[in-house]
Every structure is written in C-alpha cells, then in structure tokens.
Specification:
Layout: H1 2-13, H2 21-37, H3 39-50, H4 54-80, E1 83-85, E2 95-102, E3 105-109, H5 117-128, E4 132-136, H6 142-155, E5 161-163, H7 168-175, E6 181-185, H8 188-201, E7 205-208, E8 214-217, H9 223-235, E9 247-251, H10 255-268, H11 284-291, E10 299-301, E11 305-306, E12 311-312, E13 315-317, E14 335-341, H12 344-352, E15 359-363, H13 367-376, E16 381-384, E17 405-406, H14 411-417, E18 419-426, H15 442-452
Parallel strand pairs: 3-4, 3-6, 4-5, 6-7, 8-9, 8-15, 9-14, 13-14, 15-16
Antiparallel strand pairs: 1-2, 2-18, 7-17, 10-13, 11-12
The structure holds nicotinamide-adenine-dinucleotide.
C-alpha cells in the first residue's frame, strides 16, 4: 500500500500540476481552512493526548502554522521567481539565472512534543515549494495523529497530500521507498536511522534533532527579566521542547540571588504550571525516565511527581556536576539542572567538549561577552537575553548543526529546504567565440588567462 502511494504521488507530481504558484497557494489556503473549520476537534484531540490547553495549542501550534501559511502565501511568488545572476566574460553573450524547482515527492516525519506544529509547518514549506507530501506524524499522541489523518483525507487528494499513521514498522516501510526529500524531526538515534535510509537512495534530508541546549547566565545579566524568561521557556510544555534551555550554567557570584529570583518567578507563574495549563508528560516511559533524573538531595525547588497523572512539577536541581546522570542526555522534561562556573572560558570549553547544541541562550549585558560566545561556540540558533522565542521569527532559519541537525526551515529557509536551485546558462546562437576551439595559440591562451583572471 505504501509503495503504491508513493508511486501515485510521483505520477501526480509528474503531471506538473503542483508547480504553478497559484496551485500551491490554493492548497495552503485549503490547509488553513481545514485547521480553522476543525479547530475545536484539534483542541480536543491534543487535550486528550497530554492535556495541552487551548491557549498553548493556539500559541505554540496552530497560531504558528497560520503565521507560516500567511508568510508563504505572501512571499511564494517572489521566492519562486527565477533569479538573474551576472554572466562571466568567457560566456559572453548569454544570460545566467537560477530557477527554484520542487524536489518532488516529500516524506515528512514528525515528533510528538508539538504534534501539530512539527508535522504541519514542514508541510507548509513543502507545499509552498510545489512538492507532494506524505506525512507520518508521531504515533505517541494518538488522538492528534488520528484527527490530522482524518482531516487531511477529507480536505486533500491523497495523490497530493496524505498521512500515513503508525510507528516504527510503518516508518521503516516508508523509509525503504525512494523519495525526493525526507524531512525528519526527532531524536538523534532515529535521525541516524533516517539518514542511513536516505543515503541508500541518495535522497536529500533535513534533520531537525535535539540535544542539550545550555543557558549561560553571566554576572552582568538583568536578574529579574532573565529569571522570568528562563523559567517560562524551560517549563513551557513541561520542558518537552526541543529548544528548551536544558541546563543552566551560572556565574557563581550571582547564583544564589538568581535562584531566589527563579523561585519568585515560579511562584508568580504557578498558574501556568498547574491544573489545565500544564501539560502531562507524554507517556509512562518518559515519566519513569524523568523521575529517575531527580536526585532528591539536589532538589532546590519542586521535585513532586504523580505517576497516575504523569505529572512532574517544575524542578530545579542545584549544585549539579557535569558527571551527573541528568547531564548525560537531553532531559526533555521539567527538570532544570544548575551548574555554576567561575570563568567563562572554562564554561565554553565544557560546552564545546560536547555535541553541538540545537540552541544556546546567553543572558548578559556585556557586549564583549556576547561577541565572545557567538564567535567561539557553534550551535543551531538561539537568543541573547531570551530563550525559545527565536523560533517565532520566520525570518530566522531554524535548525541544528552537527549532532543537533542538518539543514533548516521556516520562512524562505523552509521553501529552500524543499527546492532544488537549477542553474541555467542561456545562450543565443548569433555569436560563437572561437577562443576555446583549435587552433590553439599563444594569443588565445593570453586572452583566456585575462578573461579567467
Ligand atoms: P523519535 O526520534 O523517537 O521519533 C520521531 C519520529 O520517528 C516519530 O514519528 C517516530 O514514529 C519515528 N521513529 C521512532 N523510532 C523509529 C525507528 N526506529 N525507525 C524509524 N522511525 C522511528 O523522537 P520523539 O520522541 O518523537 O521526539 C523527541 C526528540 O525530538 C527530542 O530529541 C527532541 O529534541 C527532538 N525534537 C527536535 C525538534 C527540532 O525542531 N529540532 C523538534 C522537536 C523535537
């Protein structure tokens, strides 16, 4: 069935109907219509899965997709135009230009933590660029996967856009097919599986992976605002955010004062972290994994768990060491380890000794510190004096580097991720220079050397 689906999408793509910009815009509008008309069903499904509130679902999932659709509809004409470039002298007379063409049949594999956004934002990019799409959402939030599959089958022709639901067997079967693009969001180990499968078919990939993203809090930071932003960003979605600050590296001269301010913020924002405003941990396996990371004697704040509710309160662990269990893998939950440092060079060296993070956040008011960190540390993207919010600016390409990912998307970066840029040298026939043809002579060589420079 999956093999047949890919075949049908390829045949559809080869009819060229997805290529006109008008068609793409129409499909983007259809996607928006689908989401708007069924918004309540989407709110209900995600609440059922892990108690995600309507407010959070709108601000971090649906609103995000609406904004992406609006941006793409507004700019896709311009993005799709052929771009003229200058022609070198040796080719005179000619025109040179670059044409963005869709890659073809795209496979998008989503993660569970923002199940609508991480599935459909790449779909928006793929459609804008003129591809057909098979989407495989994460199976963990079963209700969101189901509602998306039902709606997409109602609003779209499966030859153009369809959803295959399932887990490892279905994804493996999909990965055995020949696609023109694979866009994967998920963990590093599964990213390697996807990359390997893509390599067998020489399929281009975008890998949006994870990792341990540090928040460096320096002695010159604005303590009040920094604590407010850090607490919000860490515990949003109960810490189940790929770009959440994973751990805090804080200068020891301000550590106590800063942690006190974090407590003030946790209390001030407590309604965001309770009842229907705070999501559950996605499943029992993750609940168990996270619970084991809470070393009782290091709990500075929180540490409360409830297995039945899959609830873990916002938790800060103090005096954590680099060797501790919580510092080995991405946490992906509401636990914030705090490590203090005395010298920034040492802190930077520690970060650099580990895989390149997806995000890095620096809280400082010192220009030189900012320049130093931006210059010396490689990471996907991030913020100065803020965390997580860089993802909301679609003018910033979003992606990792090294272990945290390959490629980027959002805005024009998403369009580029699903496009091939075809370079054309377009020559008239009324003139042909004899320079490259026999007989070869010293004056020709001299001229060629001059032209090539
Ligand atoms: P995951 O890697 O377990 O699953 C991602 C997708 O891969 C799912 O659709 C799943 O069905 C499929 N999958 C799982 N195991 C597979 C296998 N063996 N073979 C083929 N397919 C398989 O990731 P997850 O738990 O859904 O998400 C959490 C991870 O994703 C974290 O590491 C997080 O940092 C990362 N993430 C990254 C971003 C980003 O934009 N960079 C966003 C969200 C999450």
């Amino acid at each position: 069935m999956i093999e047949q689906l890919v075949k049908e999408q390829r045949a559809y793509f080869n009819t060229n109907v997805t290529k006109p910009v008008k068609f793409r815009k129409k499909q983007l509008s259809a996607l928006k219509k689908m989401l708007i008309e069924n918004q309540q069903a989407l709110f209900d499904a995600i609440y059922e899965d892990f108690k995600k509130s309507k407010f959070d679902t709108y601000t971090t999932e649906l609103g995000f997709i609406y904004h992406d659709i609006k941006t793409c509809i507004k700019h896709v004409d311009r993005w799709s135009e052929k771009t003229k470039v200058s022609t070198n002298l040796i080719n005179f007379p000619a025109k040179s230009y670059v044409i963005a063409e869709p890659l073809g049949v795209a496979l998008i594999i989503g993660a569970w933590n923002y199940p609508y956004q991480l599935s459909l934002a790449p779909v928006v990019a793929a459609i804008s660029a003129g591809n057909t799409v098979i989407l495989k959402p994460s199976e963990l939030p079963a209700n969101t996967s189901k509602v998306m599959a039902q709606l997409v089958s109602k609003y779209f022709d499966p030859q153009f856009f369809t959803i295959v639901e399932g887990g490892i067997p279905e994804t493996s079967e999909l990965l055995a097919q020949k696609f023109d693009k694979i866009f994967f969001t998920g963990s590093v180990p599964v990213g390697k599986i996807v990359y390997e499968a893509a390599a067998k078919q020489l399929t281009p990939v975008t890998l949006e992976l994870g990792g341990k993203s540090p928040a460096i809090v320096t002695q010159s930071c604005n303590i009040k605002t920094s604590a407010k932003r850090l607490i919000w960003s860490k515990f949003l979605n109960a810490g189940q955010t790929c770009i959440a600050p994973d751990y805090m590296l804080i200068h020891n001269s301000i550590k106590d004062q800063f942690l006190e301010q974090c407590v003030v913020e946790l209390e001030a924002q407590k309604h965001s972290f309770s009842n229907d405003n705070y999501v559950q941990i996605i499943n029992n396996r993750n609940f168990e994994r996270l619970s084991e990371l809470i070393e009782k004697e290091k709990v500075f704040y929180g540490g409360t768990t409830n297995k039945e509710e899959r609830y873990i309160s916002p938790t800060i662990l103090n005096d954590v060491a680099w060797e501790d269990k919580v510092m080995q893998d991405e946490i992906f939950g509401p636990i914030l380890p705090v490590i203090s440092y005395s010298d920034l060079d040492g802190a930077i060296a520690k970060i650099k000794s580990r895989p390149k993070p997806l995000a890095l956040y620096l809280y400082t008011s010192d220009k030189r510190t900012k320049q130093k960190v931006l210059n010396e540390v490689s990471f996907g993207g991030g913020g100065i004096n803020d965390s997580v919010m860089h993802i909301t600016n679609s003018n910033l390409p979003f992606g990792g580097v090294g272990n945290s990912g390959l490629g980027a998307y959002h805005g024009i970066a998403g369009f580029k991720a699903f496009s091939h840029y075809k370079s054309i040298l377009d020559k008239p026939t009324w003139f042909e220079s004899q320079l490259k043809y026999y007989p070869f002579s010293d004056w020709k060589l001299k001229l060629i050397k001059k032209l090539i420079g």
